[in-house]
């Protein structure tokens, strides 16, 4: 007589297995494109999580003071330890040709996460690993992230990447751990020209609020047509970069008009 036996238990999938099940990916993986409507992801933002009470952080980058020394890039890497060759912030070098045929100009453009008020990276995350705090800082829960890359595709600022070591999404965090300790982000603290200013935009007397008022006519943001309401503001940003800037990591040359 045979004794009935129960079928062997199927182990619960890890987060990689969960992702494959979620997307229906088998041995032959298929890349599922994100349509433009999903990429912008302005509507349907999930509730924000607690942050530093009463604050809304933003950053002003004064390009007139940036000398392209890369101290911000180096200090950020030392503080946050991304894999070699990957960066949370960069200073890209661009070659711009004036329309009047004058000599080319070299422009140093600091790049980082814009910590948008309508971050398109947040609603596309299938596991809510990317989230925004009430103080405006956008973060990634690496314990929850499955490395699908949807947020990387959704970001219009090329500010995200999949960390080679953790296989999860990575990006600038405004060094929130330093802000919570009353310190400046590594990139701000190390900027030799004082080109980066971070602060509480809810405080009208903060340095960033005063800069935004003083230079109101000259303030620009990257890709305003995306309607993400970015909170990294530029002083002295050439019009050529407002809508067309691309590229995340490294130093490269790009023509512009």
Set out the fold topology.
Layout: H1 15-23, H2 36-40, E1 57-62, H3 71-80, E2 90-96, E3 105-111, E4 130-132, E5 138-140, H4 150-154, E6 161-162, E7 169-170, H5 176-180, H6 186-190, E8 196-200, H7 207-214, E9 219-220, E10 232-235
Parallel strand pairs: 1-10
Antiparallel strand pairs: 1-8, 2-3, 4-5, 6-7, 9-10
Would you give an account of this structure?
The structure is a single chain. The protein has 257 residues and is of the alpha+beta class. The protein is 18% helix and 16% strand. The chain has helices at residues 15-23, 36-40, 71-80, 150-154, 176-180, 186-190, 207-214, and strands at 57-62, 90-96, 105-111, 130-132, 138-140, 161-162, 169-170, 196-200, 219-220, 232-235. The strands form four sheets. It has a four-stranded mixed sheet, with helices on one face. The chain is globular, with a radius of gyration of 21 Å. The chain starts with 14 loop residues before the first helix and ends in a 22-residue tail after the last strand.
Based on DSSP secondary structure assignment, what is the total number of beta strands?
10
Radius of gyration: 21 Å
What's the number of helices? 7
Q: What is the N-to-C order of secondary-structure elements (H for helix, E for strand)?
A: HHEHEEEEHEEHHEHEE
- Beta-strand content estimate: 15-25%
Q: Termini distance?
A: 85 Å
Low-confidence spans: pLDDT under 50, at least 5 residues? Answer: 1-13, 18-42, 248-257
C-alpha geometry: globular
Helix content: 10-25%
Largest sheet: 4 strands, mixed
What is the overall pLDDT average?
83
Biggest sheet strand order reads 8-1-10-9
Structural class: alpha+beta
